[in-house]
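FAQ: What does the model actually see?

It sees only this:
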Amino acid sequence: MQNRWVSFYLLMAFLFTSACGQGEVQPVSFMVFGEPAELKAYQDLVAAFEKQHPEIKVELIHIPSQGDYRKRLAADLVGGEPADVVLINYRRFSGLAIKNAFEPLGPYLEKSDLIAYDDFYALSMRAFSLNDQVICIPQNISSLVAFYNKDVFDAAGIPYPDAGWTWDDFISASKALTLDVDSDGRIDQYGAGVEPTLIRVAPFVWQNGGKVSINNALTLADPLDLEAVQWFVDWQVTHHIVPNAVEEKAESSESRFINGRTAIYFNSRRLVPTFREINAFDWDIAPLPVGRSDATILHSDAYCLPSASKHKQAAWTFIEYANSIDGQTLVSQSGRTVPSLIQVAESDAFLDPNAKPAHSRVFLDVIPFTLRLPQQANWADIEEICDEELQRAFFGEVSALEAMQSAVKRALPLFTENE
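And it is asked to produce this:
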C-alpha cells in the first residue's frame, strides 16, 4: 500500500511539473525612448499584445532621452545583454548591422502569416536592409515637415503654408511672424524654430541640387550644397527669424512652439502625441518649403532583434504583432508614427481629420520625394561632426563656408576607416 501512495505522489508531481512547463511564461524585454505621451503608445501596444499572447510577458524599458537611449543600447550590445527588442533609427542602423549586432528578420518575415514584405512601403524596408537582406522591420515612414501655429497666422492675416510654398514664402512669413510684442527690445515670438543639424538642412540641400555625400566624402562645401547651407544659416545670422544660441539654450524651439511663441517648427511625426496635448492654440502641418525641386528626409525607426537575445522566437512574435495591422493601428492612433504598413497608413487610424494634425496625408504625399542619408558604418560619427560644424555656422561663430570645409575635412577619414 505504501508503495502505491509513493507511486501516486510521484505521478502527481510529474504531471504538475509538466503542466507548469507547458504554461511557463516567456519573458521579452522591449526598450524604447521618447516623451511621456510617446511612451503611452508603447504601453498600449504591449497591453494589447499580452492580451493576445498570455504566454509572453513583455518588460517595457523606457529611456526618455534619445542620447541616453543610444548610450544605453551601445553599452548593452557591447556587454552582450541587450533588450530582446529595440528601436533603431535607420541612420544608426548600418553601423550596428555591419557588425552583426542584429538577427536578420528576413527569414522570419518569409514564414509569417501576419505580415509580408510587400505590405510595407519599399522605402522603409530598404532603409533597414543590408546586402539585400531584411534585418529589421520598420514601424514608420515619417519625414521632416513644418508644424505651424494656425492662430498666429490668423492674427497676422497670413495664409497658411501649403504644398508648393517656396523658400522665399517661408522667409517672408517668418519675418512677419517674428515679433517684439511689448516693444522692450526682445523678441517675444519667433517666426521659426529648428535644430541646426544635418538632418534638418539635408532636405534643403537636396532641393537645391546638392548631394550631402557621394563617393565616400561629404559634398557640403560644393557650390549647390553650400548655397542651401548658407540659406539655412541665414535664418539666424541674417534674418533673425529663429532664436540665437543663448535664447535657444534658455528655452528650446520645441518648448517655444508648445508655449505658443514660435510660428513654424520643423520636426517629424514623433512629436504629435506631445503636441496633441496643446490646448492654447490650433496647429497643423505642411510640407517643407520648396527650393529648385521637392525633397524631404526620411525619419524611420525599426524593431530590431539583437543577435545576443536569449528569447528570439518570443521576441519575433512581439515584433510581428507590433507590425501587423492591429499593432500598427494602435501606435498610429497615438499619433507617434506614420505607419510603414500601407494598409494602416491609408486608413482612418492615421488619416482621421478629427485628430490633429488635420492634414496627416502630407506625410504620405511626400513619400515619392523622400530621400535617406547613406548607409555607412561610421555615419553616426560623421553626422555628429556635421552637427557640430553646422551649429558653429548657424550661431555665427564661423562662416558657412568655413564650417562646411571643416566638416568635409574632419569626416573624410571616417568614410574609409572600416574598409
